Amino acid sequence: MPSPSSHPKLDALEQAARGKGRLSVAVAYPCSTDALGAALSAYEEGIIDPILVGPRRRIEACAAELKASLDNVRIVDADDDPILSSRAAVALVSAGEAKSLMKGSQHTDELLGAVVSREANLRTSRRMSHVFWFDLPAYHKPLMITDAVVNIQPGLKEKVDILANAVDFAHRIGFEAPKVAILSSVETVNPDLPSTMDAAALTKMADRGQIAGAIVDGPLAFDNAISAQSAKTKKIASAVAGDPDLLMVPNLDVGNILYKSFIYMGGGECAGVVLGAKVPVILTSRADSRRARIASCALARLSLA
């Protein structure tokens, strides 16, 4: 696996997050060594101030297995149930005691179910979605993907929210006018291929100011989205082709495969958060590296003032 020094863009992301001070994060049900270790590592890196929410005895057992200290780390004892612990963590965020929420060792739907509940008061008018931020050795700048985690088969209405979430997020982390490639399997509009129709509609909506603050083009196939030479060969005139900041995928299948290809074949490292709630939700996978989990905390920190 590549060493941290092989991902300078990720190094810069984490350094920028440290410069903003620690983010108060309610960590829901950190009852595995991976989940707890990631939260404690982000704490040691000066990125977050974790509040560990879950059964104290299990959290302390995990810390003992890690040989890690819990000194100066707040623990909120909760029932040994991932759903109830998730609700307790969400309640802390709702009460303003934490500014972000982090997934522990529960299933994603158990945490997000607590987030979208009426009692939580964390929903906004937008649909929730996820964005990945990548440091790819073969690409000249950070590259984001949305949505590879939350929305399975979004229609145009849902894609408007997904794109708006990602553009607003890009502004908050320093992209003044992000270039967005709306992906499909081809770069021409085909009425028999719904993803091309959605891409064309989103592009026109951006042209008309319905989606503001980004340069949007689509449909683009992956090759001509990511390669200016490919776009030139296919005679595609585009301000986005070859230089996107954000790839918007047509569905979760495409996004998930692309994300894993970037990691396992492209030598990339990533960070990711869920958007569309009142606070960023740090959502990590059991397969994510410790570095990716820390970087996700850094990304959440940078997304807030």
Could you characterize what this model shows?
This protein has helices at residues 8-18, 33-44, 56-66, 82-94, 108-116, 156-172, 194-207, 222-226, 228-233, 252-264, 290-302, and strands spanning 23-28, 48-54, 74-77, 100-103, 129-135, 143-146, 179-183, 215-220, 246-248, 269-275, 281-282. The protein is globular and about 60 Å long. The two termini are 33 Å apart. The longest helix has 17 residues, at 156-172. It has a six-stranded mixed β-sheet with strand order 8-7-9-6-5-10, with helices on both faces. A five-stranded parallel β-sheet has the order 3-2-1-4-11, sandwiched between helices. 41% of the residues lie in helices and 18% in strands. The mean pLDDT is 94. The protein folds into two domains: 21-123, Rossmann fold (3-Layer(aba) Sandwich); 129-265, 3-Layer(aba) Sandwich (Isopropylmalate Dehydrogenase). The protein is built from eleven helices and eleven strands. It has 305 residues and is an alpha/beta fold.
Compact description:
This protein has helices at about 10-20, 35-45, 55-65, 80-95, 110-115, 155-170, 195-205, 220-225, 230-235, 250-265, 290-300; strands at about 25-30, 50-55, 75, 100-105, 130-135, 145, 180-185, 215-220, 245-250, 270-275, 280. Helix 1 (about 10-20) packs across helix 11 (about 290-300), helix 2 packs across helix 11 (about 290-300) and helix 4 (about 80-95) packs across helix 5.
Can you identify the CATH superfamily of the largest domain?
A: Isopropylmalate Dehydrogenase
Summed up, the domain count is 2
Number of strands: 11
Distinct helical segment count: 11
What Rg, in angstroms, do the CA atoms define? 19 Å
General shape:
globular
User: Sheet bearing the most strands, described?
Assistant: 6 strands, mixed
- Find the structural class using helix and strand composition: alpha/beta
Would you tell me the overall average pLDDT? 94
Helix content: 40-55%
- Low-pLDDT stretches are none
Q: Strand order across the biggest sheet?
A: 8-7-9-6-5-10
Please give the CATH architecture of the largest domain. Answer: 3-Layer(aba) Sandwich
Gap between N and C termini: 33 Å
CATH class value of the largest domain: Alpha Beta
User: What is the H/E string?
Assistant: HEHEHEHEHEEHEHEHHEHEEH
In the CATH hierarchy, the third-tier topology of the largest domain is known as Isopropylmalate Dehydrogenase
Name the beta content range. Answer: 15-25%
